[in-house]
Amino acid sequence: MFRVQLRMRIKAGCEAEFERVWQEVGDSVTDHPANLGQWLARSLDEDGVYYITSDWTDEERFREFERSERHLTHRQKLHPYRSDGSMVTMRIVAALTGRGTR
Hints:
This protein is an alpha+beta fold. It has one domain: 2-Layer Sandwich (Alpha-Beta Plaits), CATH 3.30.70.100. 32% of the residues lie in helices and 34% in strands. It contains four helices and four strands. It has helices at residues 15-25, 27-30, 59-66, 69-78, and strands at 2-10, 35-42, 49-56, 82-91. The protein has a four-stranded antiparallel β-sheet. The longest helix has 11 residues, at 15-25. It is globular and about 40 Å long. The two termini are 21 Å apart.
């Protein structure tokens, strides 16, 4: 599995609108056949900071999506809300399931 994590700082006062638009355009990511899911998390430690995590079957298929028109459209809809951001990619090497999921 291949994981992508974005860190985004959202402009002050735009947080609720950003969350709404993220929900609206999310299927442009999750409808891709190689996408395993994505999550939006709001930091409790930093005002206006969000983390978007998405899992993919493999890096090649993610990079295919990243270069697509679908991704460009998705980014254009979210870009007006952010003041900065960064991306980290990783390969999952192990996973443990917590008791609460059993």
